[in-house]
Design brief:
Blueprint: H1 7-10, H2 15-40, H3 46-71, H4 78-87, E1 95-97, E2 102-104, E3 109-111, E4 116-118, E5 123-125, E6 130-132, H5 137-165, E7 176-179, E8 182-185, H6 190-218, H7 222-226, H8 236-244, H9 273-283
Antiparallel strand pairs: 1-2, 3-4, 5-6, 7-8
Helix pairs in contact: 2-3, 2-5, 3-5, 5-6
Length: 284
């Protein structure tokens, strides 16, 4: 596993979107844990303790998986490729990248935003300011999964807190508009903004999760799934191991649990036509 330089992350303009997302999630976590939850359940009750621990688990996994997604380098390593290509000179499925001036292996493509070739490239994620490829797809998937779960629970809890307990009029701060000699009360929108943010994150994460799961299930990248190309489908268990590693049953606990990927991401073996057709039928 290789790590990217921080200079390759934070110099990009899109990194500002990542900062806004992290700050927004942190504020939402603080509000939910310290304002919403104490009013929903009695402090110290089993339900309160459970939700408190669940919130910490979700928040820590969202942040750690997002950090690992950004730090793990999914780019093609020219040194590794030169050795692999020498061993397989007869292969015809490698292609030339004129921008990187290298021979890239199958399923690896150039990203114009990152400016490099990505190993088993899936897509470029603007929220994490990096490309999603073979090495960091695990962290991207868990970031999306836990964001969806957290936003779903938060949306329900916030709805009960705002509409049921406070009749839709809760406010963090008293806000007024002073115009000449008049003090005009302004609709307090602090909680409304957070509520809308949770709804937007919930919808976006649900859409991302809906896109990710077929890719993981059938061992395909985003572009392959869109073109109904499931020629690398090795069966559900093998496909999951390709994304989550050999200790995939433990990876959901923490982003820092090592799980070695059983493949080099370079030499792919296609399945037979019958198996590919079966996968295509299942997705229709």
């Amino acid at each position: 596993m290789r790590f990217r330089s921080l200079k390759r992350i934070f110099w990009k303009e899109e990194a500002l979107l990542t900062v806004v997302l992290v700050v927004g999630i942190t504020i939402a976590y603080y509000v939910l844990m310290n304002i919403v939850l104490p009013e929903l359940l009695n402090i110290g009750s089993p339900g309160y303790i459970f939700l408190r621990m669940l919130g910490l688990f979700l928040f820590s996994n969202i942040m750690s998986n997002m950090a690992m997604c950004m730090l793990v380098d999914p780019t093609v390593d020219p040194k590794q490729l030169s050795l692999q290509f020498e061993l397989r000179k007869q292969r015809t499925d490698w292609h030339e990248c004129r921008k990187c001036e290298i021979l890239a292996p199958p399923r690896s493509y150039h990203c114009r935003i990152c400016g490099v070739c990505i190993l088993t490239r899936d897509h470029h994620c603007y929220f994490s300011a990096c490309c999603i490829g073979y090495e960091n797809y695990r962290y991207f998937f868990y970031t999306v999964l836990y964001t969806f779960v957290a936003s779903f629970i938060s949306f329900i809890a916030s709805s009960i807190f705002w509409f049921v307990l406070h009749g839709g009029s809760y406010e963090f701060f008293e806000t007024h508009l002073i115009w000449k000699e008049f003090v005009i009360p302004v609709a307090r929108i602090e909680f409304i903004c957070l509520y809308i943010l949770m709804l937007v994150v919930l919808v976006v994460s649900a859409m991302e999760l809906h896109t990710c799961w077929p890719n993981v299930r059938y061992g395909a990248t985003y572009f392959e799934a869109n073109s109904r190309n499931f020629s690398y489908d090795q069966g559900m268990k093998s496909n999951l191991e390709m994304f989550f590693g050999q200790r995939m049953h433990l990876t959901w606990i923490s982003a820092f649990i090592p799980s070695h990927l059983p493949h080099d991401g370079i030499n792919w073996r296609k399945t037979d036509a019958c198996k590919g057709d079966w996968a295509i039928q299942k997705t229709k």
